[in-house]
Design brief:
This protein is an all-alpha fold and about 300 residues long. The protein has twelve helices and no strands.
């Protein structure tokens, strides 16, 4: 009975994660539609998300206080969250939505490397193999999409940051509620980006929003950030950081399809891009199959 309950909980979390990843796929479309710079965009995004979570706590009379040490750790993790999103949207503006999303697939590789080091676990050979295939795909994209080199680099660094804060959150969620983690990390992202804008005199006329920008940012800040971020963190109670990273790599599939619907971006890509993308996405889909086969062989021995 307990095993059945665990299985149902696992399936529920997988459904929540897939839905969350679809929403994340839509953020790339909003990022391309919003006209302001990547840094300004993320500042507005985390401001809206932080305020919406604060109002959620107040209306539901939910306690969200944490101790000083946890508060500081979550604010520092917020720097990674903010950096990830700034580089993600910068990558979109420097390249295209499909290029950025395929680069984001390298989260799997970085998580395969970082998670065992941070959590002091044994490195999985299968995860490293999957990561190596993803590298091969990225190299192909680099080779054929040279006009997007800056966008690709920004996308890859964004993936490193995403991998790191996902691993950190997989530990936080064992002790704290997902909305609380999300609130302090998003507030941390807002704090660090505000400091950056103050030092670079970024609070100027370039942050002026068009009417369409306001609508897109409200969707981005509430549904695609506060709601999706809480959901993405909450599933980590049941799922490992690597499994979350693997499923998160479906974001390129959703995002590329949405980019085709909204912008027709597929027509801009070379054959080299698609070969690299197929290698990356095939690795993502085949990894769970290979993992199950290895587990079955071990149980038979």
């Amino acid at each position: 009975m307990k095993q059945n309950s665990t299985s149902q909980s696992l399936n529920k979390n997988l459904i929540i994660l897939h839905f969350t990843v679809f929403i994340w796929g839509f953020t790339s479309i909003l990022g391309a539609l919003i006209t302001i710079s990547a840094v300004s965009l993320v500042w507005y995004r985390v401001l809206i998300a932080s305020v919406s979570l604060f109002l959620y706590f107040k209306f539901n009379k939910t306690a969200f206080k944490v101790n000083g040490s946890t508060f500081l750790q979550l604010l520092l993790t917020g720097a990674l969250v903010g950096g990830h999103w700034v580089l993600f949207f910068a990558s979109i503006k420097l390249s295209t939505v499909p290029v950025t999303l395929v680069c984001l697939s390298s989260i799997t590789l970085f998580t395969a490397i970082f998670e065992p080091l941070i959590n002091k676990k044994r490195i999985s050979k299968l995860e490293i193999l999957a990561g190596s295939l993803i590298i091969a795909g990225i190299i192909l994209i680099f080779k054929f999409e040279t006009q997007y080199t800056k966008g690709i680099i920004a996308g890859l660094i964004s993936a490193v940051f995403a991998s790191l804060f996902s691993i950190i959150n997989s530990r936080f969620v064992k002790k704290h509620e997902a909305p609380v983690i999300a609130f302090y990390e998003l507030t941390g992202a807002l704090l660090w980006i505000t400091i950056y804008l103050l030092f670079t005199h970024g609070f100027n006329s370039t942050m002026t929003l068009k009417n369409s920008d306001i609508g897109y940012l409200l969707i981005l800040g509430t549904i695609c950030t506060s709601l999706a971020y809480v959901a993405g963190v909450s599933v980590m109670r049941e799922l490992s950081a690597f499994k979350v990273a693997l499923i998160t790599n479906l974001e390129p599939v959703y995002g590329i399809l949405l980019a085709f619907v909204f912008f027709g971006d597929m027509n801009k890509m070379t054959i080299g891009f698609w070969v690299g993308a197929i290698i990356i996405l095939s690795t993502i889909f085949l990894f769970p199959v290979a993992q199950k086969q290895i587990i079955r062989r071990k149980t038979r021995q």
